[in-house]
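Subgroup meeting minutes
Present: P.N., E.W., G.H.
Scribe: E.W.

1. P.N. recapped why we're keeping a running log of single-chain structure predictions: easier to compare across weeks, and new members can see raw inputs and outputs side by side.
2. G.H. added today's entry (292 aa).
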Amino acid sequence: MVAYVFPGQGAQFEGMGKDLYESDAHAKLIFDQADEILGYDLSNIMFNGSAEDLKETKITQPALFVHSLASYNKGGIKHTPDAVAGHSLGEFSALVASGALSFEDGLKLVYQRAMAMQKACDAVPGTMAAILGLDDEVVEEICKGITEVVVPANYNCPGQLVVSGSKAGIEAAIEKCNEAGARRALALPVGGAFHSPLMQPAKEELARAISDTTFNQPNCPIYQNVTGMPVTDPVMIKQNLIDQLTGSVKWTQTMKNMVEGGIESIVEVGGNGKVLSGLFKKLDRKFPTSAI
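Output recorded in log:
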């Protein structure tokens, strides 16, 4: 059994998609369609923009979504995953790949999500930090003991947990994690406190957009971030997607549940093709991975 997995922010790179656009008619169609839906030349920014341009949330999110789906549709091949999943933003790509969302609706939601998150970041500044070499439970307890806003945001793999919150909360968490013996605890160069309570205004905005969007029965289970469990019910998929903005990305749990559920290999689709494959290798060095 094979699962297709889709990366989130951090997997972007300069010139992303240019080769695809120039060499594959099916992929070109996706890029052209995206520019038309958005009403601006996203493709040009992806192909010719700087690393700084691609770091902007309102650019990064649609760019990665479009790149993932263009990669997925490369050559017009009809893929038949046994399951799908996506890390944070990648969950939207996974939903389109599974047939639960149309490409157009998915892109519109991703753009609205990006703009809502940008607005929330501007209103209440926050940040994130990667904690390496501590058990998840230790980091969770440290977060609970800090009065400022700081929560576990991304359970990436065993021994790698990203925390998110106010700048003071993150500073306190870094200090306490270092004291607890973390191998590394470092602030990340991100624009806000993603997957934390500070994203509540963005969640409310996105909830309205998701509620107004048609979701179909997916053609395979999607392992969703907030539970790490496989879901096929469109109503539950919608709610989990809304909760994702302020909830933790349970990727470690997702990987373990996939393996326990019979998934024998994964295909990483879009981005630089290395991020999620690398996390699976941290779970099991011999786990078979490939990339599109």
